[in-house]
Amino acid sequence: MTELLVEEIFATLDEQTVTAPGPEATALIAPSLAAPLTAVLDQRKPPAAGLDA
Fold this sequence. Notes:
Number of strands: 0
Structural class: mainly alpha
Number of helices: 2
Low-confidence stretches: none
Order of helices and strands: HH
Mean pLDDT: 85
């Protein structure tokens, strides 16, 4: 029973695939994700400067 289960697990793992985006997709996605994060950081700068004073 255990051997069969182990064989089935390995067979299932062999069938799985992962698709990773290529450099072209990353070049398109990264800036669109970075822009909102930059905006949040810029909004936090003035209040943070007041707290440090």
